[in-house]
Structures are given as C-alpha cells and as structure tokens.
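anyone seen this seq b4? input:
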Amino acid sequence: GMGIKSENTCVGDSAFFSIIDPSGGTTSFELIQWDVMDFFGNVYYSVPSEKVLSGVFPVGGEFIVMLTVAYNGFTCVEFIMDTIIVSDQPDAAFTINDNEICPGTAISFNDQSTIVTSVSSELSRSWDFGDNILAGDLLNINHLYSKPGTYEAILSVSNFGSCSDTEKKII
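predicted toks r here
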C-alpha cells in the first residue's frame, strides 16, 4: 500500500510530507486529502489534491499526519497515518565575567540559553573561544586566552530535534 514520507522539524521551519507510492509514482489518484492535527484535534492543515504537502508549524509538539488516497477508479481507498515531532527553537545566550580581561586571567563563560518547550528541554552545547580552542557540553566554563587580542567567542546550542541557535560575542 501507500505510505507517508515525513521528517521531524523545528518550529518556524518548513515541514514536507509526500506520498510513498510503491508503483514508483505512476499511480493516478482520484482523491488525495492531507490532514495534519495535534493530539487535541486542532487541525493545522487540511489540503486536498497535492502529492506533496509543505507547511510551517507555529508551535512545537507531536502532530498526527493523515493521508487519504483513492485510485483505480475509487476501487482502492487507503487511510494512512503517521506522527511527527515539531521541536522548539532554542535561544542561545551567554554571559562572560569580564570585570578584568587580562592575559593570564581566566574568563568565566556562563550559558544562559533558553528554550520554550512542549517536547523536551534538553539542550546540548558547544563552545568556540575564537583562539582555536573548543569545548564541549558544559553550562559554565573558564577559559584562559594565552595572548592579548580580540577574539570572537561562539556558543552553539541545539535540542534533541536538531533545532539550533548560536550566540557570538567579541572579547
């Protein structure tokens, strides 16, 4: 039978849904109907006639994707259902304790990133201090610049759904 090709996405990004046709795309459909709703029954999209549906979700959560197709002169009717997860976008932010920035003095970097979430609030992060030094998944870290100069520090955060954001500061 037919199927739905879909991928999880992020709030504000386009989601794409298409028909998986075992005949390789040669089926002539008399009816195609897409319905996308949340688990409370709120309909986000109800679109007829399109083999590919795209849409942007204003909120995060888990959504039901339903496809109704009819072919072979309406002798074959299929109802296919799938679910997708729409993840919230994180907002990267960090502070630095820069009361005294001097060579030989460590600077404290503190992750202040946030995410409004309806699925999961787990964030992973990575730091790039602009001096070819990288650091992994740490909320707070001290970094020592070995030479005087101007550096661009970057914090990248992402959630489990691969939605990401970065924050940059010149030091």
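The CA atoms of residues 61 and 86 lie 5 Å apart. The chain has a mean pLDDT of 89. kinda curious what u guys think
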